[in-house]
Specification:
single chain; 220 residues; alpha/beta; TIM Barrel; eight-stranded parallel sheet; 8 helices; 8 strands
């Protein structure tokens, strides 16, 4: 599972008035997943969209949908996002009280389970549940808004996760989200990252397809 490097464009900065074409453009660029940033205006200071939009996205792409739930009480909405078509559900360690139970819930609904950690959250906080996680997401910006600058100590956290994975013969993917672009994606790849969430560095460019191709080539 870790041999293929995965480019996961985040539609947070896409043009929602032309979303079908924008998703088609990243598909043509060789992207592997579609990343959906779900924000409720409470866990993070921004409001995006919910299961209805994910359901609409499911109708226009066959790529796996990666739903990152930056919301309060994610347990109450996990089933709705799976029903809407999300293949991967990622919850935040900082918000989920009973993480073991939540990850098992995601699996019971037929989806892959991810855990995200904010910049200030240590990797060690996940040591007891790595056998339940299909993916661990390192937030390399403080969550809530696109276009932020990459936090440099995120490299160290990715290295720690990669070491934890090897020491425990675990098979979770390492994902990074925030400030990822052509200037750092290769270093992130070499550090141990498997899944690269990219927003502005794709959707903020004039040629979306060419931008996706460039980034995909850098991690291939």
């Amino acid at each position: 599972m870790k041999s293929k490097k995965i480019l996961a464009p985040s539609i947070l900065t896409a043009d929602f008035s032309n979303l079908a074409q924008q998703i088609r453009s990243v598909e043509l660029g060789g992207s592997d997943w579609i990343h959906c940033d779900i924000m409720d205006g409470k866990f993070v200071p921004n409001l995006t969209f919910g299961p209805v939009v994910v359901s609409s996205i499911r109708k226009i792409t066959k790529l796996p949908i990666d739903a990152h739930l930056m919301i309060k009480d994610p347990d109450s909405l996990i089933e709705k996002f799976v029903q809407a078509g999300a293949d991967w559900i990622t919850v935040h360690q900082e918000e989920v009280v009973h993480l073991d139970r939540t990850l098992n819930l995601i699996h019971s609904l037929g989806a892959k389970a991810g855990v995200a950690i904010n910049p200030s959250t240590p990797v060690a906080s996940l040591s007891e549940i790595i056998h339940l996680a299909d993916m661990i997401l390192v937030m390399s910006v403080n969550p809530g808004f696109g276009g932020q600058k990459f936090i440099e100590y995120s490299y160290r956290k990715i290295e720690q996760l990669d070491k934890l994975r090897k020491e425990n013969s675990a098979d979770f993917l390492i994902q990074v989200d925030g400030g990822v672009g052509a200037g750092n994606i290769k270093k992130l790849c070499d550090t141990g990252c498997d899944v690269f969430v990219v927003g502005n560095a794709i959707f903020g460019k004039d040629n979306i397809t060419a931008s996706a191709v460039e980034l995909k080539n850098l991690i291939s």
